[in-house]
Structures are given as structure tokens and as C-alpha cells.
Design a protein that fits this description.
Helix content is 16%, strand content 31%. The chain is built from two helices and nine strands. This is Pullulanase.
Length: 147
């Protein structure tokens, strides 16, 4: 009887310990954030309605602004009004993605804090900024000059 009690106690202890340990849950976004803004030096980093991105398709968003070609880079991000984690998009890899060249996509990290994109226009004009959430885990950002 003592042996049965000991084995039952050991089993209960083992089950208790197993129940306390769990794997961390990774929450992955399944859709893009609802409201995003083009935020940068050109609008004092504000979430202004005129810089709100609008949907072109289910996962592709765009906004546009006039940029002056003065040889200086424009720092910017794509973020919601509150700079929320998961909706605060900057570059993913400093070497590969920080500096954006016209008509070339770079990878974004929407949980970054200070990873500002940089873009230096060669001509003054209206530029369109795109973010593509086709892969929600690794969205891409692209800039093109509006004709």
C-alpha cells in the first residue's frame, strides 16, 4: 500500500510540473493593420489624414506626397497613429533595406522602433509610397515617381 501511495504521489507531482510548463505562444498577424500613415520628415512624423494610406487591393496600400530633390534623404516610416507594435514599419535589415531606390522593393519590419527608411529623390515631383502585405510576416515597401 505504501508503494502504491508513493507511486501515485510521484505521478501527481510529475503531472503538476508538466501542467505548469508551456511553450510560449507566438502571435502572428493574419492581416495588415487597419489604418496606416506615411510618417516622416516631410510631415513632422505626424499621422495626418492627407498621408493616410489607402487600399489598392486586399493587401496593397499606397500614399503619395511631393518631394523636393535637394540632395538630402527623406527619413520615413509607415505606421499607425499610435506607433503600435505590428503597425510600425521600418526597414528589416539595415544593409539591404534602409536606403530605398526608386522602383525597388525592400523588406519591412512592422515591429521595429527606430529603423527609418531613407529615400533621396533625384527629381522634384510627386512620389507614391507602397506597402505590400502579401506576406504579412515580411511586407515590402516600394517608391515610384508619379507620372
Amino acid at each position: 500500500m505504501k508503494n502504491l501511495f508513493r507511486k501515485t504521489s510521484q505521478l501527481l507531482l510529475l503531472l503538476s510540473v508538466a501542467a505548469c510548463s508551456s511553450l510560449p505562444q507566438v502571435i502572428t498577424p493574419v492581416s495588415p493593420p487597419d489604418e496606416l500613415y506615411l510618417r516622416g520628415v516631410f510631415n513632422w512624423w505626424e499621422a495626418e489624414e492627407s498621408f493616410r494610406l489607402y487600399k489598392l487591393s486586399d493587401r496593397l496600400y499606397t500614399a503619395e506626397t511631393e518631394l523636393i530633390a535637394d540632395g538630402q534623404p527623406y527619413d520615413f516610416r509607415i505606421a499607425d497613429a499610435d506607433w503600435s507594435k505590428g503597425a510600425n514599419c521600418g526597414y528589416q535589415d539595415k544593409e539591404a533595406d534602409e536606403v530605398i531606390r526608386l522602383n525597388r522593393s525592400v523588406n519591412a519590419d512592422c515591429s521595429s522602433i527606430n529603423n527609418n527608411f531613407k529615400f533621396t529623390p533625384r527629381e522634384t515631383g510627386i512620389y507614391q509610397f507602397f506597402i505590400d502585405f502579401n506576406d504579412v510576416q515580411s511586407p515590402t515597401v516600394k517608391i515610384r515617381r508619379k507620372k
